[in-house]
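Researcher: Sequence recovery benchmark, item below. Answer with residues only.
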């Protein structure tokens, strides 16, 4: 009966039913893949074999670690820059700057490569700079909206408690949106992995899983391409889960709020 509820709008189902649905959908996806009408696409067995070769013979593990640490570095810089810009937007002087940064999401990174090379140099700093920019423009857009949507009632309530404006900013704007900031971080962290291939293709001095993916794609090694893509997907999902778990640990009240809703 619970399975029937899965096809009814606005219904909640048990965790067991959710697991059954996921298992069934994964099985259907694998069947579609195995019976694909496109003969050039590699089969799951070929991808698994390619993964073993890449991991044990071609150094996929170290390359993945190189990309992962670079992604974390860019993510840390993104959090610091984005939160600073978003919270400073409570002052009229900084609002145009924050708005200008958010508009940067329409710019292509290829056209900015030369400018970033002049500013930070090439190699590792260039890749981190491009990744940071690509994530920051989207992070600022989302977080600035969170700050702008704070109800005036909350600000007025803090003032009635005889807080000055800086205390209001700390209690309501910063601490009051901390759980939302972690959620915005989780949503935007995936952008780094999406841009990884392009960034590591611009500068291949350190290697990385993105450079390896470009090399395999250049030689049309589709099984290897699929293996690398699936590896990036799994690592990205684990990172996403880790950030979500961190949010639940630091902000347990946010989950209780959702349950009440």
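Model:
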């Amino acid at each position: 009966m619970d399975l029937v509820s899965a096809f009814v709008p606005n219904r909640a189902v048990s965790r067991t039913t959710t697991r059954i649905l996921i298992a069934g959908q994964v099985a259907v996806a694998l069947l579609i893949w195995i019976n694909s009408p496109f003969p050039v696409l590699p089969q799951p067995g070929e991808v698994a074999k390619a993964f073993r070769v890449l991991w044990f013979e071609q150094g996929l593990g170290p390359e993945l670690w190189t990309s992962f640490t670079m992604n974390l570095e860019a993510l840390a810089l993104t959090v610091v820059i984005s939160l600073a810009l978003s919270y400073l937007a409570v002052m009229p002087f900084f609002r145009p700057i924050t708005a200008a940064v958010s508009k940067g999401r329409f710019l292509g990174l290829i056209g900015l490569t030369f400018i970033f090379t002049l500013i930070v140099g090439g190699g590792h700093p260039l890749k981190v700079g491009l990744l940071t920019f690509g994530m920051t423009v989207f992070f600022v857009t989302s977080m600035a909206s969170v700050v702008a949507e704070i109800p005036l009632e909350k600000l007025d309530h803090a003032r009635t408690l005889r807080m000055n404006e800086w205390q209001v900013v700390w209690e309501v704007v910063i601490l009051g949106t901390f759980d939302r900031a972690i959620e915005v971080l989780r949503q935007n962290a995936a952008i780094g992995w999406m841009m990884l291939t392009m960034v590591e293709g611009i500068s291949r001095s350190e290697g990385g899983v993105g450079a390896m993916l470009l090399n395999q794609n250049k030689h049309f090694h589709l099984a290897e391409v699929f293996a690398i893509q699936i590896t990036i997907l799994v690592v990205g999902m684990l990172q996403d889960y880790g950030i979500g778990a961190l949010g639940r640990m630091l902000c347990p009240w946010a989950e209780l709020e959702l349950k009440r809703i």
